Amino acid sequence: MDIGVVVIVVVAIVGGVAYDALKMRYKYRHLASGKGFDELQQELLAVKERLATLESIVTDKKYQLKEEINRL
């Protein structure tokens, strides 16, 4: 294998890892400052509402009966 190819691959990997590390550092610094807390709280509430909807669909007797019929 050519040494130039190896150097390019190593630089690409190191660059990608460094980019991800800086991105994560910025994200956690932003969250720690409290600016992103309200956004996360709103997103969590939206996810909880969606989960409740999915739970009601899955626990519905008509849904369970339909699944049993489909299995047969």
TrEMBL record:
Transmembrane segments: 6-22
Keywords associated with the record: Membrane, Transmembrane, Transmembrane helix
Name under which the protein is recorded: Phage shock protein B
Organism: Alishewanella aestuarii B11
